[in-house]
Design a protein that fits this description.
Elements: H1 2-11, H2 17-24, E1 29-32, H3 39-44, E2 48-51, H4 63-66, H5 73-83, E3 92-96, H6 100-113, E4 117-121, H7 129-150, H8 156-180, H9 189-199, H10 204-219, E5 229-235, H11 242-249, E6 252-258, H12 263-266, H13 276-286, H14 297-310, E7 315-321, H15 325-340, E8 345-350, H16 357-371
Parallel strand pairs: 1-2, 1-3, 3-4, 5-6, 5-7, 7-8
The structure holds iron/sulfur cluster.
Iron/sulfur cluster binds near residues 74, 236, 237 and 321.
């Protein structure tokens, strides 16, 4: 499956061949950190939106000078890559206040890494009409700042075209997850995560073309038969497949997720009605609530339960990076509720750079035995 290998290659590095081609054409790239970043605005400016990840990071000795070890290790990995030049291909950076940890990366990045264009786009932590009006103003401000700095005009027509391209991706990824809900899914959870991660590291038009033909292959494939349990994975920044590979190496098969490099990134279309900028802002502000959102617990629980039921999972694994408050709280609350509904759950805590593989294997193995009634 050439398309799948292409996505795995793109997602396993930072400066992939699409980025190189894009730069050779003299085009610009803006990095962003969170699923609340309105990608269509960057795309409509003729700029490549690039989701910041920690892949290729092997240690955080430089970042640890500026961020304490009680800070999220994903954030320290991202800062480390910035300090060591791995993100030198970026022409700009859009930061969002996903959490307090990622907000500190912004402060350090602006001060230490220095980048021609940087924009902080605050997102309210509550879903209210006032909150939406505030977010809409921020989105308008971001659009103006991109236009002024890069000397481009983002027209409604260009925004509508970007909405079309990104909605096409979302519909294709929905189809991919529908195939994963089959009795014999055509791909593993690790492969699926690589596809979603690749979607935000290459031009969407290329991504859509490759995924369209890959889906045709997957629809006709026999699928995976030798697995012991269907699993869902829920939690914080998981931008590379290593943890899922550990789980799938022990006989589990991850058939769905609630991850920000998964369903929380692509679910929810932008409406084609009315003002395109407002439609974009509405989709991003009101899309599946991330744990950072307060007072939205019933929606978050409903989102996880609905996906678990649809994919007919045997169990749910919650994972979080150490010191990640938003997921730390939600993981425990949702896990308790699912257990009360006889859906077995397991909560794992980790560092971004997974070191203690043995501990994970022991815990996952015991969880699989529990599911299989051992
Ligand atoms: S994993 Fe948690 S602490 Fe780290 S950036 Fe995401 S929300 Fe923040």
């Amino acid at each position: 499956m050439e398309g799948l290998n292409n996505f795995i290659e793109v997602s396993s590095t930072l400066r992939n061949s699409y980025v190189d081609d894009w730069k050779k054409q003299g085009k610009k790239i803006i990095g962003y950190t969170c699923t609340y970043a309105p990608e269509e605005i960057i795309h409509a400016a003729g700029i490549l939106p690039y989701r910041i990840r920690g892949v290729t990071c092997t240690g955080t000795s430089n970042a640890d000078i500026y961020m304490g070890r009680f800070n999220c290790s994903f954030c320290r990995a991202v800062l480390e890559l910035g300090i060591t030049g791995a993100y030198d291909f970026l022409d700009g950076f859009c930061y969002l206040n996903g959490c307090d940890h990622i907000r500190r990366v912004y402060d350090n990045w602006v001060k230490i890494v220095k980048i021609p264009f940087h924009h902080f786009l605050p997102v309210p932590h509550v879903l209210t009409e006032d909150g939406f009006r505030f977010y809409m103003e921020q989105v308008e401000g971001f659009k103006k700042h991109v236009e002024t700095h890069f000397g481009v005009k983002i027209t409604d027509e260009k925004l509508r075209e970007s909405i079309r391209v990104y909605n096409e991706s979302r519909e294709l990824l929905e189809k991919l997850y529908d195939l994963r809900a089959r009795e014999n899914p055509p791909i593993t959870g690790a492969q699926s995560l690589s596809i979603v991660a690749a979607s935000s590291a290459m031009p969407r038009e290329d991504f859509n073309t490759i995924l369209t033909s890959l889906l045709k292959e997957l629809e006709n494939s026999e699928g995976i038969r030798n697995y012991d349990a269907r699993l869902m994975i829920v939690g914080s920044e998981l931008d590379q497949p290593s943890l899922i590979e550990i789980i799938e190496g022990l006989g589990g098969l991850v058939v769905t997720d609630s991850l920000c490099f998964g369903t929380r990134q692509f679910k929810g279309l932008v409406s084609g009605e009315g003002d395109p900028l407002e439609a974009i802002a509405k989709r991003y502000y009101y899309h599946n609530p991330c744990p950072r959102m307060l007072r939205e617990y019933p929606k978050k629980l409903g989102f996880v339960r609905e996906l678990a039921v649809k994919a007919r999972v045997d169990g749910v694994i919650f994972e979080k990076i150490a010191f990640c408050d938003p997921h730390g709280v939600d993981n425990v609350m949702i896990s308790k509720e699912l257990e009360e509904q006889d859906i077995p759950t397991l909560i794992l805590e980790r560092d971004y750079l997974i070191s203690d593989v043995g501990r994970f294997k022991t815990r996952v193995q015991a969880f699989l035995e529990r599911i299989m009634g051992g």
